[in-house]
Amino acid sequence: MLTYLARRLFVMIPTLFMISVLVFVIIQLPPGDFLTTYLNELQAQGEAVDPAKIEFLKRQYGLDQPIYVQYAEWAWGLLQGDLGFSFEYNLPVSDVVGDRLWLSLVLNFSTVIFIYIVSFPIGIYSATRQYSWGDYGFTLLGFLGLAMPNFLFALILLYYANVVFGTSIGGLMDPEYINQGWSLAKMMSVVEHLWAPVVVIGTSGTAAMIRRLRANLLDELGKQYVVTAHAKGLSPTKVLFKYPLRMALNPFIADIGNILPQVVSGSVLVSVVMSLPTTGPMLLTALQSQDMYLAGSFLMFLALLTVVGMFVSDVLLAWLDPRIRLQGGVGN
Question: For residue 78, what are the contacts with CB-CB under 8 A and spacing of at least 6?
């Protein structure tokens, strides 16, 4: 098992390196740079721009250097914990991000936990009670969750929370705690506001997970070893939890690596609609203004979540099903 973990950790290093190269190339693909966009905006407003000042800013920010030199400086800074400099905010990226990164982590991981807590028992219930009224009801809710866009659900929830209950659920904390240091009162305010975006973002993921677990478990329950176990007089609960459920969990756990980036990408529009102080709206602004170091830092954060999620799913799969670990060792 230790060899398996070491091999997976070793693979993460070149993976993150290649992702960093692709991220830097992608943010460099649009023509021009932040200063070019800024210059065009000033000219559109009829303001005069000193070319000497633009050249000075290019040298100051290193935009006059070849792309491989810019990448090397950015990657070396990432290794040292330096996320680069935000052109638009004229501040280091770490200062610009502030609490947004931590709030995004709290929101995303809370959503993942919500998805698993809700979908796991419902998926088991639907599979063990196939074609019952409960199964039909959860199936209907699942299809509604898949069909409804997250931003539309967010608008509906905002409207009814305000009209019916007279409360505002926008944001992740009360206004008086914004730009203040962390305290117990601020954390409690975050917890009070967290449920709404978690429900909105997690709805589609929960619906998809329920359908997947139900299908996998139904496939296992129809196999011969389950029929034999029932014929020998084993209790249905023991038969369910000892083998079929464990085998049905393989795709369920494998989705951990995919669900994290899906949650992050799905939260961008929801963050805009619900005025959430997360990384999503700032990423959109950074991409539009070509603030490459700010955008690159957010994309690397998303890539890191994906790689870590894949690592966690691989470890859990190896623990759940030793055949995966042994087959990996033979293949290598």
Answer: 20, 84, 300
From residue 19, alpha-carbon distances to 12, 25, 168, 306 in Å are 10, 10, 39, 11
pTM of the full structure? 0.74
Q: How many Å apart are CA 135 and CA 119, to the nearest integer? A: 13
3-class DSSP state for residue 166? Answer: coil
pLDDT on residue 331: 41
3 state SS of 325: helix
Pairing type for strands 85-86 and 91-92 reads antiparallel
Q: Which of 272, 278, 126, 288 has the alpha carbon at shortest distance from 212?
A: 126
DSSP string, 56-124: HHHHHHTTTS-HHHHHHHHHHHHHTT---EETTTTEEHHHHHTTHHHHHHHHHHHHHHHHHHHHHHHHH
Q: Cβ(187)–Cβ(180) under 8 Å?
A: no
| Separation of alpha carbons 46 and 20, rounded Å | 38
pLDDT for 168: 67
